[in-house]
Amino acid sequence: MRASHSFTVRQRVPDALAGLGELSMNLRWSWDERTRDLFRWVDPDAWEVTHHDPVGLLGQVSPERLEHLAADPAFTTFLREVLDDLHRYLSADRWFQSTDTQLRSIAYFSPEFGIAEALPQYSGGLGVLAGDHLKAASGLGLPVVGVGLFYRQGYFRQELNDDGWQQERYVTLDPHGMALHPVEGGRVTVNLAGTPLEAQAWRADVGRVRLYLLDADIEANNPDDRLITDRLYGGDTEHRLRQEILLGIGGVRLLDVVGEDSQVFHTNEGHAGFLGLERIRRLMTEGGLSFHEAIEAARAGTIFTTHTPVPAGIDRFPRPLMERYFRSWADECGLPFDDLMALGHHPDDEYDAPFNMAVMGLRLAGRSNGVSRLHGRVSRNMFAALWPGVPVDEVPIGSITNGVHARTWVSPEMSDLLDKHVLPEWQEADEHRWARIDECRDDDLWRVRQQGRERLVSFVRARMGDDELLDPRVLTVGFARRFAAYKRATMLLSQPDRLRALLLDPERPVQLVFAGKAHPADDTGKEMIREIVQFSRAADLRHRFCFVEDYDIAVARTLYQGADVWLNNPRRPQEACGTSGEKAALNGALNLSVRDGWWDEMFDGDNGWAIASAETDADLPRRDLVEASSLFDLLERHVVPLFYERVEGGVPRRWTERMKHSLRTLGPQVEASRMLRDYVDKMYEPAARHDTRMRAEGYARSRSFAAWRQWVTNAWPGVHVDGVESDHNVADLGAVRRVAATVALGDLSPDDVAVEMMHGPVGPNDELRETSTVTLGLAVRDHDGRWKYEGSFVCARPGRYGFAVRVVPAHRDLTTFAELGRVTWA
After folding, report:
1. From CA 150, how far away is CA 175, in angstroms rounded?
2. What is the DSSP letter of 170?
3. DSSP bridge pairs for 304
4. 787-794 vs 777-781, strand pairing mode
5. Cα dihedral sign, 719-722-728-734
6. pLDDT (mean) for 614-622
7. Which of 551, 565, 608, 648 has the fewest Cβ atoms nearer than 10 Å?
8. What is the pLDDT of residue 648?
9. Percentage of the chain with pLDDT > 70?
10. Mean pLDDT along residues 118-126
11. Residue 71 burial (CB < 10 Å; 0-12/13-18/19+)?
């Protein structure tokens, strides 16, 4: 039976405790230890029962307990201090307020946000990164708002059957009982294949940042449509398309409804890509721009971040489904439907090829990036076909390596130690300040490590109801992430005899703790979980090897804080970034990882260990065997002996030395504040300036640039290099070599192009390496109407040296010459 009417009942707190309500409704409590201590003081047992959820806690604590606290001067004094600290945090100027900038506001779209376990709107790394992005933005004072969906059942809760097979259980969430505010007037409508869908917005306060979540489960919708926001990553292809329409198109409309004047739009993966179509539609129907003019206007302030290193991980929607949901969009804009489909196609795709969300994301973004340097290189190769003729190294996809919000993940003990030895605001410290960790006493650092390990052992024992599991004195290896085939969670199981020997060594044992979920449709990932669980049930091993079910932020945090070694062994280069090792490193763990994602650029030979990668071997079983052998060799010969080397007392001096080196070298690099500053410098600020220019005078520059782009694209076949003149004799090191090129421009003028010379050492296949680029100067026009360009370069390296000449488009509003995908080589 359904209730005919419903309303919300909240616990009434005494006036002296009114600040508890305000503190509970700002998710800053999820990373502020003093606020968490305050709520723990309210009722320690209820704090644990509610899984550290202040809103849930206040709903369970008795009125008598609240009256008692209201009369306790120590508690009320602490409450005032914590509340005053929140108010100072929300109002004080921070890093961004001290910058000279044109950047006004950033709308950050993501399909999931991992803020805290009490707001389960995340599945894994993508959502946790989005949560850390908002938290770091808050800390830096960036004008960011988040946009996502509110999933009434969130992501699934994991349970294991008797065989160890993952079972999914979904719990219906009540937004009224969470740290969410219903947004007054925050309703939007989107068109779903002729059916209007309404959605209500909820607002979460993440420190200084507002996060808006759209919820379709409202009475205005029919029963089927109410299920559109039922589950994160649930349902079939059409269900995903409907969710992404609401996120992208509905999200843009919501920002208008709530009065958020967004300047820069940042899409975290392709799921929110339809926001570009909504912005184009508005510019055409309300601003009077043409399709191509609207694209240029929208692109200027749009940023696309790809997290996918393999094509199979990209959302694609078949043409019939796109026609059903977007034919009306094309009709309203007065466009042939093929023009819309082309936004999601590679240049050589058939007209009926599926619509690729990443391709659209790249086409409609003025700036794009991968999430580590290696991932940037992988992405440039993967999407190079979108820019034909452009060298892969110059494909316009950059990289900003992900970072993590340290205050969320670092243990109180480690935070105190870093406060003392690095800086009270150590998460903002530079390399010079982080170097002060060397002054920390070995036994102080080791004590923090022991406390984290003890907490992990206690947590696992309580969680699994077995006091014989694990040993707080034993080298502990952690592995926690999504279970997918390429992550190879079962690699250690491939050589069971060597694994048993490590686990059961009487003098130098190792213990392993696993956690993670497989996607509900991924039977391969589920089978990996089952194999690990089965192995853990062996009578002689169960005290050294365990799997913790129902992985979430709370489990992850405990693992990061307790592991001595963090294991990561994906097939390189399929891990875009992989931030779990960054979180573990900030807690003093040492990484043992394949050089993939972030570890590829940050491993220096001494701040952890690198598992050998045999990615050139196409035989996957053989490759896995080679890499597993490397992993075991490192454990047996390096990791285990170093941990148990106790020459002076009970502290492993060379291990703590390595810990310090890891903290010193990784600390300044892995923090999310570094990541956000990189986004401001490389993406947000340039996008804001570009957006300002393209909007000016009624989008005059958008209109002129679109016309120029069409003109150059159509005229480019007439561009060719007819000759290059230079001396090919042996040159002395440091000699200046002059080059002249004769170029035909067809209908274009010299103002439309740049003629460039790339020079550098020549490899064995005549390829240029480590090139430098010189723009040739215009000299004269010959009697045939061709143009002569001249320039010079210095022969800066001995050995084989060479150069190449090319013609590229040039315009003041190009972010890079590669944008047009037009290059003519000599």
Report:
1. 9
2. -
3. 267, 368
4. antiparallel
5. negative
6. 94
7. 648
8. 75
9. 99
10. 94
11. exposed
**pLDDT at residue 284 greater than cutoff 70:** yes
Q: What is the pLDDT of residue 1?
A: 60
CA dist 356 and 774 (Å) reads 37
Determine the Cα–Cα distance for residues 460 and 255; give it in Å rounded to an integer: 43
Q: Could you say which DSSP state residue 304 is in?
A: E
Looking at residue 5, its pLDDT comes to: 62
d(CA 141, CA 92): 9
Tell me the residue ranges of DSSP E strands in 459-564. Answer: 475-480, 510-515, 545-548
Rounded Cα gap, residues 301 and 141, in angstroms: 20
- Average pLDDT over the chain, rounded to an integer: 96
User: What are the structure tokens assigned to 597, written together?
Assistant: 């994602």
Q: pLDDT-derived band of residue 782, with 50, 70 and 90 as boundaries? A: confident
According to DSSP, residue 742 is labeled E
Q: Does position 185 have pLDDT exceeding 70, yes or no?
A: yes
- Residue 513 contacts residue 456 (beta carbons within 8 Å): yes
Reply yes or no on whether the pLDDT at 6 is more than 80. no
Q: How many whole angstroms separate alpha carbon 780 and alpha carbon 788?
A: 5
The amino acid at 539:
A
Helix (H/G/I), strand (E/B), else coil: 373: helix
Helix (H, G, I), strand (E, B) or coil at 756: strand
- Tens of pLDDT, residue by residue over 508-523, are 999 999 999 999 999 9
**Residue (of 449, 447, 445, 453) closest to 418 by Cα position:** 445
Q: Rounded to whole angstroms, what are the CA distances from 825 to 484, 718, 719, 722, 766?
A: 43, 13, 10, 10, 15
Rounded to whole angstroms, the Cα distance separating 455 from 749 reads 70
Measured between alpha carbons, how far is 227 from 555 in angstroms, rounded to an integer? 29
- Which pair of tokens denotes residue 153? 């059942």
**Do 579 and 404 touch, CB atoms closer than 8 A?**
yes
pLDDT of residue 90: 98
Contact 534, 493 (CB under 8 A): no
Nearest to 744 by CA among 791, 807, 792: 807
CA separation for the pair 180, 204 (Å, rounded): 5
Burial tier of 355 (Cβ tally within 10 Å: 0-12, 13-18, 19+): buried
Q: Decide: helix, strand or coil at residue 231.
A: coil
Residues 6+ apart with CB under 8 A from 788: 740, 741, 742, 743, 778, 779, 780, 781, 782
- How far apart (Å, rounded) are the C-alpha atoms in residues 485 and 488? 6
Structure tokens at 397: 């996809």
Averaged pLDDT, 473-484: 97
Mean pLDDT confidence for 40-62 = 95
List the structure tokens of 317. 């929607």
Buried b (16+ CB within 10 A) or exposed e, 92-117: eeeebeeeeeebebbbbbbbbbbbbb
Q: What is the pTM of this model?
A: 0.96
SS3 562: helix
Average confidence (pLDDT) over 435-442: 96
Whether the pLDDT of residue 666 is over 80: the answer is yes
d(CA 199, CA 253): 11
> Token match 């309580």: residue?
462
793, β-bridge pairs: 737
